[in-house]
Design a protein that fits this description.
heterotrimer, A alpha/beta, B mainly alpha, C mainly alpha, A: alpha/beta, Rossmann fold, Alpha-Beta Plaits, six-stranded mixed beta sheet, four-stranded antiparallel beta sheet, 33% helix, globular, B: mainly alpha
């Protein structure tokens, strides 16, 4: 690990980041060391919209917490806007905005505008500037009509928009968004994604985490896939999809498909992976295979009695397919 | 409720008893505040001694005769169980809400009274323990003499007062079903007993219009009877006071149950289970 | 052109004092707004001292004929009130954020945590003044005796110093609550013993000798003495005199502040080591 300084072209620079948790047993004698992060390396260019994707427990939140100075790393370096997270805490915090998301992070018993005033003071925004900026922000996120209402009366989507306003109240150059659209209805999620694009076009650097693949594909210029504490891939969404381009995805909609059928499909030659959603009346099965449509007769032959294939489509592999391959290895 | 009503009385009683017993032990676990030994020490030693001490020293400073100081010490010794009796029981209802389990317990056909009383009975033993500890301090630290005391009488007073104060706690639980602020009500009530229940001075010292309120609180009868028992009164002599206390406890419980049912219906109508 | 362009922006507030003043003001404003959203929650904080005082009124009963006795009573009550809210408030300073879900937002702020807590504690101690005023009003109307201070300026000085020492103590307590699992227990358990040991209603000279070191160590004990000396005609107290009392108070308060800032460094280190203060 070189001891050179941070690269000024990068807004976020992570080198060999490791984070261990030691859990002690009940009697304190035996302790177990878990590595939440195991040598993570990546960098985010200034002005980039970068996505960090990975399964639950892979280390996304841990990474974000370290980058936002809320958690210390066990080893490795992290630089935010050229500043070391271990040393220049308060300066970093003044220049970043964080959206934790969800129901947490706002004072529910007071109004939106009171929340923003409070955080703007906490972040050292000049009061004269805040007086202008806060109403403007509320307008841009679409909350100006309900700014005086108590936050507890807001819908989930409204709270999320307020979170964004709060993260921007001190005009940070870099934003961290931790699962920004989780729990939102499609309309609300669309609004948030729209705002993310707007922020990016203003020139802000954005690092977001998500486990919605289509969201990462839609928004991010580059994506880092994190699995079990390590970065397993780092590239643009199209390049990542390219890693699975040799594979077609045969998408079947069936009636009467069972888990046994899925297992049979997995055993067919040249089948790379089968992902099935068997929960509804009509099941959705995605079979990754370089054979593509050629495998259809064999897939049909394996159907149990009474089951039918309603529809079949050959699809291009998506980021999700690439992702699944990456995290399952 | 319909199912059990078709059963004969013995079956209903047994069902209620089963629910009662289950709730008794759940009561123990459901009380977060009792999980640590520190809270036990606080409840049984620190707070009672400090409280008795505060008023005892105050009376010494005011140069009241020793008999007054002893009056005060005994009163506070008994009153110190109120936290456990009243507040912790109210806690149970609010904790149900906190943990979101209230709707499921309300929907079972189990005898609801038995369910909640069962949880509260653990408190009776605890409260009695605290009051007993208070009397130990009274004797060992504050010089109250038990030379001519009627110990059986004392025991009866303690247990009866514990049980009766539990019923007050149940009343507050009933209120807690509906209001956000049951804990505040319990808090206020707890401290008001210091003032109204003949703990630090006789009820007769209070303004006339306040006195009837004092006599609705079981603790008031309890302090009266306890002083008599320590002075050596026989059980027979205590009986009238104890009788009134028991009656008062039962009345309060009836009111509590009525409020319980009323609030339950109201909550279901307005959908305010999870309000707080 | 982004929708987010063209928003007002400008210089930041920098500078050690102006930043902290800004934060303190913001925290206290938020506390006030939260208080008015749910004012009933102040009741548990003030009910104990309030009732203790009412009982004391009754016990003082026959002897409250002189205004000095009344004053004595009212001052003691006010001080109990402020102790009560300090103890409760310090316990809740951080758990308040936990319950609200705003813990991460608070920890992520670009200002040391201690300053946010100070703002909360000062507000809490001010709530104790509310109790004091309430009791004063009741005392004056009930007993209808005049209210005259021996030396108003010195009284005011003593009152301000005591207020500061209470807030400083609360700050230490709030850090202890976070750092120690026993913290919550300590704040709950100490309320009534503190009323006894700091001589709010009766001089500490009548306490058993075991309690005295505890009494002397608590800075507000000295503040109470100074307040009484400057307010009540003919009050003698411990016998150390007004300026000695204030001196000891100042020293001990400085000590509390030092300990508090050290402890808060530990709190922040703890938060960063574990990523949260949730587990305490």
């Amino acid at each position: 690990m070189s001891k050179q300084g941070p690269n000024p072209a990068y807004a976020v620079e992570v080198r060999g980041l490791t984070r261990e948790y030691t859990t002690r047993s009940f009697f304190g004698s035996v302790s177990k060391v878990t590595k939440a992060l195991d040598g993570v390396d990546f960098a985010v260019k200034r002005g980039e919209l970068f996505g960090l994707i990975g399964p639950n427990g892979a280390g996304k939140t841990t990474t974000i917490k370290i980058l936002t100075t809320l958690l210390t790393q066990t080893q490795g370096d992290a630089f935010i806007l050229g500043l070391d997270v271990r040393k220049e805490l308060y300066e970093i915090r003044r220049r970043i905005g964080i959206v934790f998301g969800g129901e947490r992070g706002l004072y529910n018993r007071v109004s939106a505008i009171d929340n923003l005033k409070y955080f703007s003071d906490l972040y050292g925004v000049d009061p004269a500037v805040a007086r202008e900026r806060i109403p403007q922000l509320l307008k841009v996120v679409g909350l100006e009509d309900r700014a005086e209402e108590k936050v507890e009366k807001y819908s989930r989507g409204m709270k999320q928009r307020l979170h964004i306003a709060k993260a921007l109240v001190h005009d940070p150059e870099l934003l961290f968004l931790d699962e920004p659209t989780i729990g939102l209805d499609p309309g609300g999620a669309r609004d948030i994604r729209g705002m993310i694009r707007e922020m990016k076009s203003q020139g802000k650097t954005i690092l977001l985490t998500t486990h919605y693949m289509f969201e990462a594909e839609e928004l991010c210029e580059r994506v880092g896939v994190i699995s079990k504490g390590k970065i397993v891939a780092l590239d643009t969404p199209s390049a990542l999809k390219g890693s699975v381009k040799d594979i077609s995805v045969v998408e079947l909609r069936t009636y009467g498909a069972t888990q046994e059928y899925v297992e049979e499909l997995k055993r067919l030659p040249d089948v790379v992976r089968v992902v099935a959603d068997l929960d509804s009346e009509m099941q959705l099965i995605r079979v990754q295979t370089p054979q593509g449509a050629n495998l259809l007769p064999q897939m049909a032959a394996k159907l149990p009695n009474g089951a039918r294939i309603i529809d079949r489509t050959i699809k291009e592999p998506t980021l999700e397919d690439a992702y699944l391959r990456l995290v399952e290895e | 409720m319909k199912n059990t009503e078709r059963l004969g009385f013995p079956e209903r009683f047994l069902t209620a008893l089963r629910v009662f017993k289950g709730a008794f032990f759940f009561g123990r676990k459901g009380l977060i505040i009792w999980d640590s030994w520190e809270m036990w020490v606080m409840q049984i030693a620190i707070t009672p001694i400090a409280q008795i001490g505060f008023f005892a020293f105050l009376s010494i400073y005011l140069k009241y005769p020793v008999s007054v100081t002893q009056y005060i010490v005994i009163g506070n010794a008994l009153q110190s169980m109120s936290f456990s009796a009243v507040f912790a029981v109210a806690n149970i209802t609010s904790q149900d809400k906190w943990q979101g389990t209230l709707p499921s317990t309300m929907v079972t056909p189990a005898n609801r009274v038995a369910l909640f009383i069962g949880r509260a009975w653990f408190q009776v033993l605890l409260s009695a323990l605290i009051a007993t500890a208070g009397l130990v301090y009274a004797g060992a630290l504050f010089g109250v003499s038990f030379a001519s005391a009627n110990f059986v009488g004392i025991a009866v007073v303690i247990f009866l007062t514990s049980a009766a104060m539990i019923s007050f706690g149940l009343l507050i639980s009933a209120v807690g079903l509906y209001m956000r602020t049951a804990l505040i009500v319990a808090n206020v009530f707890l401290f008001v007993t210091l003032f109204l229940s003949g703990v630090n001075f006789p009820v007769s010292s209070l303004p006339g219009w306040l006195q009837p309120f004092s006599w609705t609180i079981p603790l008031t009868y309890g302090t009266t009877a306890l002083r008599m028992a320590i002075a050596g009164s026989s059980l027979t002599a205590l009986l009238p006071t104890l009788g009134w206390e028991a009656l008062d406890g039962v009345l309060v419980m009836i009111v509590g149950y009525a409020l319980f049912s009323g609030f339950e219906t109201l909550s279901r109508r307005t959908g305010r289970f999870e309000e707080y | 052109m982004s929708k987010f362009s063209g928003l007002a922006t400008g210089k930041r507030v920098d500078g050690y004092v102006s930043r902290r003043a800004q934060v303190l003001k913001a925290v206290m404003k938020l506390q006030a707004r939260l208080f008015f959203a749910d004012p009933q929650w102040v009741i548990p904080n003030i009910i104990a001292p309030f009732i203790f005082t009412l009982v004391a009124f009754f016990l003082f009963g026959g002897q409250a004929t002189s205004s000095s006795f009344l004053l004595y009573l009212v001052l003691g009550a006010g001080l109990m009130g402020m102790w009560g809210t300090t103890i409760y408030g310090s316990g809740f300073s951080i758990s308040f954020d936990r319950f609200n879900g705003t813990l991460e937002s608070t920890l992520a702020a670009p200002i040391p945590l201690s300053w946010i807590v100070i703002g909360r504690i000062v507000f809490n101690t001010l709530q104790g003044l509310l109790n004091a005023v309430l009791i004063l009003v009741i005392g004056l109307t009930w007993f209808q005796v005049g209210f005259g201070l021996v030396n108003p300026p010195l009284f005011f000085l003593a009152a301000v110093c005591t207020f500061i020492s209470l807030a400083a103590f609360g700050l230490v307590l709030s850090a202890v609550v976070v750092l120690s699992r026993k913290g919550g227990f300590i704040t709950n358990a100490m309320e009534i013993p503190v009323y006894v040991a700091t001589g709010t209603m009766f001089p500490i000279s009548i306490l058993p000798w075991l309690a005295l070191p505890f009494a002397y160590f608590l800075a507000p004990t000295w503040g109470i003495e100074a307040i009484r000396l400057s307010a009540i005609q003919g009050y003698v107290g411990i016998g150390t005199g007004y300026w000695t009392d204030l001196g000891v108070l100042a020293l001990e308060t400085a000590g509390y502040l030092g300990i508090a800032f050290l402890l808060y460094k530990k709190v922040e280190a703890y938060a960063k080591r574990n990523g949260t203060l949730e587990e305490y």
